[in-house]
Amino acid sequence: MATTPFSPATPVRSSLKPTQNPPRIFLSFRDSYGRPSRVNVYSWSSAASYVSLRDGAAKAGVVRAATIEEIEAEKSLIEKDVVSFFSVMADFCLVCGSKERMEKSIETVRTNFNSIRTGRSNPAMLDKIEVEYYGSPVSLKSIAQISTPDANSLLVQPYDKSSLKAIEKAIVSSDLGMTPNNDGDVIRLTLPQLTSERRKELSKVVAKQTEEGKVALRNIRRDALKAYEKLEKEKKLSEDNVKDLSTDLQKLIDEYMKKIDTLFKQKEKELLKV
């Protein structure tokens, strides 16, 4: 069967032209009762948007062909669905991006808390120490193994013994308040008992770091809201989209604020425990 493109001015009779000795065509459809039916089509004729099909001498049925307007309308609906899909995906990416930044903020607070010593030794207390190693600052834990022989001491065993002096210098320069004992092979650190005054000072430090974490979360919310407003102005998000995103964002912020409060209470409990 040869075909020609549809156009508003092109009648169906010129779009469907039987060829000589056309092959047998099978047409399946449902009748007015919904029952399936199948006929052999040998010839057809057309008028306007309707096609009459014949099975030999008998008339098999009439099929209505879609007009160009109907095809364009269907195409428009499909395009709208595609745009809607990508809009939803964009919303999803925006929320995920904010959540990823929130996770990093929580991890920063956790790392800062771990670096503040309490009554017991913990290798994480040395996480923030950087050592000048071959002209470049590197984290202590990347060039040495750190262990806790007992509850009141730390043992630092460098992978390269030539870095011992640099490690010792970095520990002395830190605010840990510990004096390293370098025996030429390893460095031992003994944790002095925390006084009540020192515990209170550290509690203030923890409270400050907690507030810094919350400020970071508020900044994430501010940046996300600005991004939503920009997309709304560019007609990439609707007003309802922005409202829904803002609501979801606030729920995330509240959730991560609670996580920071939980970390703070745990650390404060450790510091004040005698």
Radius of gyration (CA) equals 37 Å
Total of helices: 6
Fraction of residues in helix: 40-55%
What portion of the residues fall into strands of 2 or more residues?
Answer: 15-25%
Termini separation: 92 Å
Instruction: Note the main sheet.
Output: 4 strands, antiparallel
Shape: elongated
Major β-sheet strand ordering = 10-11-13-12
Output the structural class.
Answer: alpha+beta
Q: Give the overall pLDDT as a whole number.
A: 75
**Annotation, overall tally of beta strands:** 13
What's the helix-strand series?
Answer: EHEEEEEEHEEHEEHEEHH
What is this entry, summarized?
The chain is of the alpha+beta class and 274 residues long. It contains six helices and 13 strands. The longest helix has 47 residues.
Give me the secondary-structure topology.
Blueprint: E1 2-3, H1 12-15, E2 16-17, E3 25-30, E4 36-41, E5 43-47, E6 50-55, E7 58-64, H2 68-114, E8 130-133, E9 136-139, H3 140-143, E10 144-150, E11 153-158, H4 164-173, E12 180-182, E13 187-190, H5 196-233, H6 239-272
Antiparallel strand pairs: 1-2, 3-4, 5-6, 6-7, 8-9, 10-11, 11-13, 12-13
Helix pairs in contact: 2-5, 2-6, 5-6
General description of the model:
The structure is a single chain. By secondary structure, the protein is an alpha+beta fold. 50% of the residues lie in helices and 23% in strands. The protein has six helices and 13 strands. The chain has helices at 12-15, 68-114, 140-143, 164-173, 196-233, 239-272, and strands at residues 2-3, 16-17, 25-30, 36-41, 43-47, 50-55, 58-64, 130-133, 136-139, 144-150, 153-158, 180-182, 187-190. A four-stranded antiparallel beta sheet has the order 10-11-13-12. It has a three-stranded antiparallel beta sheet with strand order 5-6-7. It has a two-stranded antiparallel ribbon with strand order 1-2. A hairpin with a 5-residue loop joins strand 3 (25-30) and strand 4 (36-41). Helix 2 (68-114) runs parallel beside helix 6. The protein starts with a strand and ends with a helix. 16% of the residues are buried. The model is unreliable at 1-21 and 82-86 (pLDDT under 50).
